[in-house]
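It is worth pausing here to work through a concrete case rather than discussing structure prediction in the abstract. The textbook approach is simple: state the sequence, then state the predicted structure, then interpret. We follow exactly that order.
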Amino acid sequence: MGTITLEGLEFFAYHGFYDEEQKIGNKYSVDITVTTDFSEAARRDRLSATVNYEELYRIAATAMQRPARLLEHIAHTIIEEVRARYPNVESVEVSVSKFNPPVGGVCQRAKVRLIG
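Step two, the predicted structure:
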């Protein structure tokens, strides 16, 4: 068992609860960690036997292109897509951060983490 992680994927996207957020957009960060059995990939040295992190990036980028109201929805969408592409993984953890969220004061990032 092992993990593969992509950290700090950055996107400019149009998510947010408020209509204004969906119009002006914002910067977001996504982290993805997949837990699975990598023994065959380690033994055979074959990309086809592992989780391709280039594909993980594509899944995240596609999800970030679809406007959503909640960070939870974005994380859930990414988890569902990773599980559809790699049904044998043990778990998928996704964090989605919004930079400078509109909270009425100073806040560097709002972050949601889901494990599925």
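Step three, interpretation. The mean pLDDT is 96. The helical segments are 19-24, 39-44, 53-65, 71-85.
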